[in-house]
Design goal:
Blueprint (H helix, E strand, L loop, with lengths): L6 H6 L11 H128 L1 H9 L11 H24 L3 H5 L3
Helix pairs in contact: 2-3, 2-4
Length: about 210
């Protein structure tokens, strides 16, 4: 491939003269114009080459920035995924702990309710037992009261109420045994009247 002509080559170019050739002046003028035009094209070409080089450098910089941004985007995406995963794991743990705590509270509440139920049942059983014993005491005193009314109301009442303060003289072992039993009955009777909140004299009709 032949070398490219420059504007100086065109200016210095000479041609042989012939009888029927072109006018040398016109040829020279045209060559000068061609040389000037070529020179302008060369200058423009160099300018475009500089611009192209600058664009290529900018493009290379953009490529580097793109790689950096892409890497940063990947890191940000990875970090976001890890944070989302961590947040989900933490949320799952919180829900699991809350469910376990709620289950423990429910179990404790159920156990406490069962203990209260058993306690209430025990209280009811004790109440029924005391009621049964109290009815027995009332029945016993009712029997003693009827016996006292049938035999001698006045003497029985006085002996029951004054037995502890001025005990009578003991004449025999049998009388002493009867007196001890009478005192025990009197104490049971007074205890029952204390529970009922009444005066034993009012029940017996004594003065």
């Amino acid at each position: 491939m032949s070398e490219l002509l420059t504007s100086l080559d065109i200016v210095n170019q000479s041609f042989k003269k012939s009888l029927r050739g072109y006018d040398p002046t016109e040829v020279d003028e045209f060559l000068d114009h061609v040389a000037e035009t070529l020179q302008n094209y060369n200058a423009r070409n160099k300018e475009l080459e500089r611009e192209l080089t600058a664009k290529e450098e900018s493009l290379a910089e953009y490529d580097r920035m793109k790689d950096v941004l892409h890497e940063a985007l990947l890191m940000a995406q990875k970090s976001a995924d890890e944070r989302v995963k961590s947040a989900r794991a933490q949320a799952d743990k919180i829900l699991s702990d809350a469910k376990a705590q709620a289950d423990d509270i429910c179990r404790e509440a159920a156990a406490e309710a069962e203990r209260l139920r058993v306690g209430v049942q025990q209280i009811r059983n004790i109440r029924d037992l005391y009621a049964q014993e109290f009815r027995g005491i009332l029945a016993k005193f009712d029997t003693q009261l009827n016996q006292a009314l049938n035999s001698s109301l006045g003497g029985a009442v006085e002996s029951v109420l004054e037995g502890l303060e001025t005990p009578p003289a003991k004449e025999s072992a049998a009388e002493e045994s009867d007196e001890v039993e009478l005192k025990a009955d009197k104490k049971d009777f007074e205890a029952a009247c204390g529970i009922l909140g009444v005066d034993p004299r009012d029940i017996l009709g004594a003065k």
